[in-house]
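[audit] Reproducing an earlier prediction to check determinism. Same input, same settings, fresh worker. If the tokens differ from the archived copy the diff job will pick it up downstream; this log only records the rerun itself.
[audit] input (227 residues):
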Amino acid sequence: MEQRRVLEAFRLEAGELSRAVAGLSEAEWDRPTRCEPWSVRDLVGHVRVGIAWLPRMLDGPAPDRAEVGAAEYYRPDDRFSPRTNAARIGLAQDHAAGHASGAALAEDFAATWQQVDQMCRAEAEDRVVRTRHGDAMLLSEFLLTRVVEAAVHGLDLADALGREPWLTTEAGAAVLELLLGPGRLDGARELGWDVPTLLAKVTGRAALDATETAQVEQLGMRWITLG
């Protein structure tokens, strides 16, 4: 997926998430989410931490070539082990707790994604980065994983806050292309679900019965592992 398109999806989805959490009361920031044990505060911290890896990745030496794409980034290895998941949970909680209020966290999230967006727009289309897990990836492919995180966890936040999903058209299309491959969006529409419902079902956030599972698999779904 071309870098310009992924960046636009990232900008729009991160911007919607920023607007959604701006002005939340402290009670709303403390609401539980279905991503246990995270609260709304912790989950926003988690999305922010994932985006904040990019500046140091861009400051580091570029690998000679990309070896992993966005789908392979989510492979079920040590990065999703109980030990790594526990560290991921603690890192998000620590970051959230480091802010005096939810408003301060919202401001930090907005500043972080805007900085990353600006930095990435200055990079070449073929820029390769190395992730904290050691993967050599095209910047566009790693950015796509950040779109996945913002989009899917945006669904979790909307659920926790009792709101309709704010998933943007651009982010939804980018994530579906990752899961189904290019040119397969019409097949997804045949299921009769909107994009937020489809993403909720294929990421375990909503139930799939046997018939629905077969229908999804017929589309050639790439099942990804999420922490």
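[audit] rerun output stored. Observation attached for the diff report: The chain has eleven helices and two strands.
[audit] end
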